[in-house]
Amino acid sequence: MIERWGMGALVLMGACLLLGGSESRPEAPRDRGASCASLGPAARRGKAIYHQGRGAEGEPLVGLVGDGSAMLSGASAACARCHGFSGEGTEEGGIAAPALTPESLFSPDARTGRPGHDETTLLAAIREGHVGARRLGPAMPRFTLDTSALADLRAYLACLGHEREPGVSEGVIRVGAAWPMSGPAKAQGAAMAAAAADVFAEIEVQGGVFRRRIELVLEDSNGPGGPHAAAARLARREVFAMMSSPIAAEPLRDDEGEEIPHLAPLGPTPPDAERVFQVRPGLDMLAQIVLAHAATSRRTPAFHVIAPDDAAGRLLRDGLARGQAARRDMPAPSAWLFVPGSFDAAAAAAETRARVPDAILFGGTAEELGAFVRALSSADEVPIYAPSAILGDAPAALDPRAAQRTLFVHAGPVDDRVSARVRDLRARLQARGAPAGRIGLAISVEVAARTLIEGLRRAGGRPTRRAFVAALETLRDFEVGLSAPLSFSRGNHVGVTGAYVVRVDPVAREIVRVSEWLTVAPYR
Question: Does the keyword Heme apply (predicted)?
């Protein structure tokens, strides 16, 4: 993969602005802000070429390098890889990738002495790899874009650096969320909305993000078509990013096919998603942390998984299986998956006794855990593990026998400061009229909202989705208060990759640590 194309790439990209025009050197429009506010069909197709390296039918952009034995294809050949999200140009390793903004393409370069380009030199560069008698550098690809594709790219480059990003206006950035605003869970949705509103109001009082306020655009996840249809409706409402919403098997895309950034999604990340950021480990990662803890007391523990037969339950089972497969001496876990909402504690206990496991991983609710423990023999001392999320924010409500038998894997901090912050959040939500029930998801929303703000600040005064994603990938040990510090990178979009093992103290009825911080390799 060739990451930098050199000066010749300027010629290639500039060609597209001139092809199809009647003048050899067109004049750049003076007011691009207005003319580029909404990209037309051709410019949208050109945008896909520039940023994604794909044509109108999804075909990859292809370029030959050097003597033709090396080839760039698809995303590797995308212009933005070298010339920047907004065509600003880059210079790394002593190789320059010049700016491709319309202002820079047609004017002479005083620093290098390069004149503005005309149609003849551009065509020769793109087809043959030379400008006049001068051969371009060996890193300069020769592309075979047809006339239609060149015209599309020309239309987009005429607005490069000036187009309006979806969901961004002079004074507002629109962020979407699909939460339950009706039905049995509407109190939870109201708490989530209040948590987001409180953070965004605080930022607005401080002057906003580069003088822009954050506008929350809500869709009812219990509305027509369910949560995934609600998320799709948000995509059509032109939002810059999504936050703490249900995610389908495929990443959410807007009408131009661009993936919308998504912070703290509710559900597993699709394997082909590039802009989804988890603020806490997924259930499959938590299962591997459980395995790491169990292995400290027994080298090859045989696990039995009891969980609902849904996406969450399968994540627990598959995460544990993947972790055990990585340790060749460990047996594969057995599993008993039940129909959600139809848990049979006696049957689960009988199946567990038949399996004779060394440890149990439980994925049901706190009420189902209590029933399961009561159905087990009191003489059975097999340890039980469960995600701490099943406790909600009320560990005191857990069945006493379940509290004695169960270890919980907890991805957040455990100290008095967190308890104080949770009380503060609850008070702020109540001040906004939110119900005083469980606020577990409201905590996740607050973490996501503050992470979103930090990413926008780092993306700069002219935020783009791509710059926002790149900015989030620079976060290291970012403190939010209600979560462990978050760290992302280009290869890791899971902000927290570890957890504590905790238990519920039978007297104080609060969670207490029983392990040091345990980490596993991120899966994204």
Answer: yes
